[in-house]
């Protein structure tokens, strides 16, 4: 018996390497991996893993690494995810080509998709139709040239700005064409149209975040027949506040509606007039809750505290029937504390063959529109009954106009009614619009927003500021006068499990080994899926699009693994931290090859929520740095996207401040040349937008490197400025940009001027420790020059080490860079050339200005300077002066 037991143990010992070898073999069907994408059935890479040719996946090398592709009627489509499921069909996420119109430089990238002869089709459950452009009616047409849907792009303010629109469509189709009709004389310019996945891009107005004219591919979902939906994304996800602990408040009811804070029954104390509920008794004895808004009583249908909404029976905005007509003007919610919810409503227009336009508070403020489908599609009466339009956030009133378009069918003339109104998403349009006579309806369910939900967790205060409903369902703490931390109380039940004991035997040992092997396999797969999740969340798909399209001559970017980053930073040891800031934490790391690098762990969490906006900023920094190749610009080595937060890997540069004048002058020249390269010599002009001393690093040879391109932006050669939300560092920010929100290349010149006077004075731009007159370095510097007392504020080391004439000329150049009028500042090209001349002249430098309003002293002139100022140097050998133009 003992001999057999030893044999069994030996068998199990030999079985372990067999299990490990099996684990390391080629992955099974449904578990194949190409790049960062797991290929699930029915798709496959190996011949044994797919049954039909259209499910064959080819793993191809690209500049961004290996990527999976499927071939659909001769067009190679990149597979972004094969785990999608549709409401009534299986689905796959692919990179769909964009159709460009009137874009000479992009026409070659335009591709028409035709899925005929394959099991694939575009489904309305997961896709929207979108368009980028200005003032056009974008229409998507079927193979038979019938309009399926359309939207109207808002008019742009100027040639440099960009706008667009998007809309839902109904039904499935295998091919489409696009038509672009100019609504204004100046609308005929570069435009694009595309089908895109409606869950991939964050909703925004007038276009979802992340969509622009230069993109050649967008994620879209291809479906094929199935009836199973196993994806929680099939249902619309609403924003919620996180769960916290609990504590009490009155719950009122009227009829079938229950409500509580901030709504109160009329007659109760401490209630805002705008939130008073009137419980009205009807003729048949039923109780109906009413809300009086601007003199109009609206019936309350439902109330949601965490969503911050109340559903009301709202008057139909536009109705054109033979017996009934509504003008098209909505109820005005201005000043009431309510606005129309853009998340829980959809603007729907019923009818066919009409162009529907929606205007904001002013009738000339076009906020969107859509084209209803043709009244006859495929030579039979269409089941599509209208079109929808997204609305902007915070809309308080709107006006609707509907105009008929030429339609060959007489079906439209037979319809008795056409209407357009804002409708609650919970109202089932597809079934109910045919169930009732719209001509007999005057109201429609609409959601009014009284509070804005925010993602993330918050914690209830243990104080008198915390309240709960009397039934204990909801609790909230007042964080400020208009901000609540709210939660829905959930009763958690803990289950205790006990182990009764187990017997030890060879069979148990074998079972444990098998279970352990299975656990390792599942654990490895779980890690792969988690890394794929992080890769998508951290902007990996967006980065892959840029790499595949090679926009702006993007260089190949190395993608590091999370394991490499952990090893390089000693698991993010605090002793490796080089610095911390608003953008993240920088670690000193060592790669496998022994090279020293700086690893920036981006800050992606605000409070306790993941900041989607910062992902765009991170990817923007990667793209900008990958386009730049200059010795005085920080070099990006690669990035890691499969960690919980994205990481950037840079060359390592020890930041030490040199003290000699010669070094300071050389540093300013190198910074100026780097900015001149960004503004003029790069493949696409780049505005840095955050030039400051802390973003100027020095390598071991004291060469300056410009870093931190998180807020930088590429511009076209025709663009003179960027209109953006004001961002930057106080003390370095261009006052002209702060006032107008328009960032130009001269805004970088101003920031460079601040760095220049920092190097001259050795002081920070803002100092809270100084007295009021000298708190701002720029003001103190300009006042000192005005009073002819420049050398009082110059760093004593500079005064001791530098030639007086060179210091004066550099100070005068800094003054010109700091001119409040951006047009009077020099360009970075002029700045770089003048600094080079200062260095080459050895102190024999004269600044010449053509300012008609002031005279120039030998040292400092007091009037406004002119950007046409030039420098000349005197060559003492032959006494000839060469002006530098």
TrEMBL record:
Q: What is this protein called?
A: Protein kinase domain-containing protein
What reaction is this protein's catalytic activity?
L-threonyl-[protein] + ATP = O-phospho-L-threonyl-[protein] + ADP + H(+); L-seryl-[protein] + ATP = O-phospho-L-seryl-[protein] + ADP + H(+)
Q: Which intervals hold domain Protein kinase?
A: 572-838
One biological process term from GO is:
cell surface receptor signaling pathway
Q: Where in the cell is it found?
A: Membrane
Q: What is the lineage of its organism?
A: Eukaryota, Viridiplantae, Streptophyta, Embryophyta, Tracheophyta
Respond yes or no to whether keyword Cell wall biogenesis/degradation is given for this record: no
What Gene3D superfamilies is this protein classified in? Answer: Phosphorylase Kinase, domain 1, Transferase(Phosphotransferase) domain 1
């Amino acid at each position: 018996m003992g001999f057999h037991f030893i044999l069994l143990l030996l068998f199990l010992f030999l079985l372990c390497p067999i299990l490990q070898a099996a684990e390391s073999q080629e992955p099974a069907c449904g578990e194949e991996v190409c790049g960062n994408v797991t290929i699930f059935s029915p798709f496959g890479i190996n011949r044994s893993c797919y049954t039909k040719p259209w499910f064959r996946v080819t793993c191809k090398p690209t500049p961004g690494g290996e990527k999976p592709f499927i071939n659909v009627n001769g067009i190679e489509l990149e597979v972004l995810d094969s785990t999608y499921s549709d409401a009534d069909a299986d689905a796959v996420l692919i990179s769909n080509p964009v159709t460009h119109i009137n874009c000479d430089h992009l026409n070659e990238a335009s591709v028409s998709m035709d899925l005929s002869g394959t099991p694939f089709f575009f489904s309305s459950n997961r896709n929207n139709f979108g368009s980028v452009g200005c003032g056009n009616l974008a229409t998507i047409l079927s193979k038979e040239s019938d309009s399926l849907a359309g939207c109207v792009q808002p008019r742009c303010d100027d040639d440099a700005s960009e706008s667009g629109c998007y809309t839902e469509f109904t039904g499935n189709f295998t091919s489409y064409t696009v038509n672009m009709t100019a609504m204004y004389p100046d609308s005929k310019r570069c435009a694009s149209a595309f089908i895109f996945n409606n869950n991939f891009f964050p909703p925004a107005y007038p276009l979802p975040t992340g969509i622009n004219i230069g993109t050649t591919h967008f994620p879209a979902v291809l479906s094929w027949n199935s009836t199973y939906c196993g994806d929680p994304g099939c249902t619309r996800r609403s924003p919620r506040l996180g769960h916290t602990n609990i504590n009490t408040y009155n719950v009122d009811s009227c009829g079938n509606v229950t409500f509580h804070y901030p709504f109160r029954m009329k007659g109760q104390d401490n209630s805002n007039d705008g939130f008073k509920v009137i419980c009205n008794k009807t003729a048949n004895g039923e109780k109906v809750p009413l809300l009086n808004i601007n003199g109009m009583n609206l019936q309350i249908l439902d109330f949601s505290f965490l969503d911050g909404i109340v559903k009301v029976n709202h008057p139909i905005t536009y109705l054109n029937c033979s017996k009934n007509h509504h003008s098209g003007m909505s109820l005005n919610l201005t000043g009431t504390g309510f606005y129309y919810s853009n998340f829980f409503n959809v603007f729907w227009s019923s009818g066919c063959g009409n162009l529907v336009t929606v205007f904001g508070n002013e009738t000339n403020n076009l906020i969107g529109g859509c084209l209803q489908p043709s009244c006859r599609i495929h030579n039979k009466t269409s089941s599509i009954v209208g079109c929808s339009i997204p609305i902007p956030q915070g809309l308080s009133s709107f006006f609707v106009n509907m105009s008929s378009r030429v339609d060959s069918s007489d079906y439209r003339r037979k319809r008795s009614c056409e209407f357009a109104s804002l409708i609650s998403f919970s109202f089932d349009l597809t079934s109910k619009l045919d169930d009732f006579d719209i001509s007999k309806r005057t109201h429609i369910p609409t959601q009014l927003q009284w509070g804005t939900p925010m993602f993330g967790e918050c914690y209830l205060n243990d104080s008198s500021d915390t309240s709960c409903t009397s039934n204990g369902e909801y609790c909230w703490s007042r964080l400020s006068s208009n901000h609540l931390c709210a939660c829905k109380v959930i009763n958690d039940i803990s289950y205790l499990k006990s182990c009764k004991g187990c017997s030890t035997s060879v069979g148990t040992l074998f079972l444990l080994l098998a279970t352990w092997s299975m656990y390792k396999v599942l654990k490895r797969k779980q890690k792969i899926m988690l890394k794929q999740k992080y890769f998508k969340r951290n902007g990996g798909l967006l980065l892959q699009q840029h790499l595949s399209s090679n926009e702006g001559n993007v260089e190949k970017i190395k993608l590091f693994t999370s394991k490499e980053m952990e090893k390089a930073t000693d698991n993010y040891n605090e002793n490796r931290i080089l610095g911390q800031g608003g953008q993240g934490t920088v670690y000193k790391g060592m790669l496998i090859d022994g090279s020293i690098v700086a690893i920036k762990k981006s800050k992606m969490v605000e409070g306790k929520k993941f900041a989607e906006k910062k992902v765009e900023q991170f990817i923007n920094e990667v793209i900008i740095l990958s386009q730049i190749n200059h010795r005085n610009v920080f070099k990006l080595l690669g990035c890691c996207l499969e960690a919980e937060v994205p990481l950037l890997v840079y060359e390592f540069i020890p930041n030490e401040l040199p003290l000699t004048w010669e070094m300071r002058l050389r540093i300013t020249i190198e910074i100026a040349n780097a900015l001149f390269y960004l503004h003029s010599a790069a493949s696409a002009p780049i505005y840095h937008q955050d030039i400051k001393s802390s973003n100027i690093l020095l390598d071991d040879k004291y060469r300056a490197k410009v870093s931190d391109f998180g807020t930088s932006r590429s511009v076209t050669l025709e663009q003179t400025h960027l209109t953006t939300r004001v961002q930057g560092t106080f003390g370095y920010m261009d006052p002209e940009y702060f006032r107008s929100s328009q960032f130009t290349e001269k805004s970088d010149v101003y920031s460079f001027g601040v760095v220049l006077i920092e190097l001259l004075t050795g002081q920070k731009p803002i100092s809270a420790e100084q007295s009021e007159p000298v708190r701002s370095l720029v003001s103190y510097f300009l006042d000192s020059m005005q009073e002819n007392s420049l050398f009082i504020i110059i760093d004593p080391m500079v005064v001791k080490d530098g030639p007086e004439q060179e210091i004066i000329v550099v100070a005068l150049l800094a003054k010109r860079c700091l001119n409040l009028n951006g047009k009077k500042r020099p360009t970075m090209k002029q700045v770089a050339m003048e600094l080079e001349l200062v260095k080459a002249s050895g102190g024999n430098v004269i600044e010449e200005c053509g300012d008609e309003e002031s005279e120039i002293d030998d040292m400092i002139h007091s009037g406004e300077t002119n950007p046409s100022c030039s420098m000349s140097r005197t060559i003492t050998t032959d006494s000839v002066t060469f002006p530098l133009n």
